[in-house]
Amino acid sequence: MGLRMLVALPLVATLGACGSARAQTTNEVWPELDVYWRPAEHQRSLLELSASAEQEGPKHEATVGTYQDYLFLPRGYVRAGYRFTFSTRDASYRESRVVLESTLSHDLSTLWHLADRIRVEPRWVNGAFSYRIRERLHVQRERRPIRAWALAPYGTAEAYYDSRYRTIARIGGRVGNVFRFSPTRSLDVYLARQVNSRTLPRAIDALGLTLALTY
How many whole angstroms separate alpha carbon 60 and alpha carbon 86? Predict the structure, then answer.
C-alpha cells in the first residue's frame, strides 16, 4: 500500500495547507477513558469509553470498545477488538468496527522511541460494509523502564486508506504529553489535526484528554 511513505512525506504539507478550508474546519473535544486489566503476564484487556462533540455543529457521538492484547512479540504486541460508535442524539449514525492491529517498537536512543502501528478495520457504517487500513508512526520521549511522575511528550502521524474511495482519504497528526502519576494511572493531553479529502468536514481540530487506569 505504500502507507509508510504517505504518512511521512505529505503530512506536513497537507496539515499546513488548509487555509482555504477554514470555513469547513470544526473544533472538537475528545474525552476518553481507557481501563486496562492484566489477567496474565502476556495478556492484556482494554475497555475504551470515548466521545466526540462538535463545538460548531449538532453532532454528538459515543464509542464503546473492547480489545484483547497479546504481548508475546519481542518488540511489540498484537491486538484484536470490537468498537461500536453511535449518535447520542438520534439514530443517524451507527458503526460496528472490528479492529486488528500490530505494533512494533524501536529505540531511537536511550530516551526517544518509535512505534509503528498497522491497523485493519472491517466496518459496517449504517449497515454498509467497507474497510480501512491505517498506519501510524508514533515518536515519544520517555525513560525506560517507565517511571511514575514522569513526562512523556510525543508526536504522531497517521494515514487512513478507505476502501470506499480506494485511496488515502484522511491524514492525521497529534502532539501531546502523557502525565504518569503512578505505574497504573496516567493522563494523555494532546492536540489533534485531521484532514479529510473525501468527506466533510474537511478538517478537524481537537483537544484530546485520555485517562488510563490499569488494574
Answer: 9
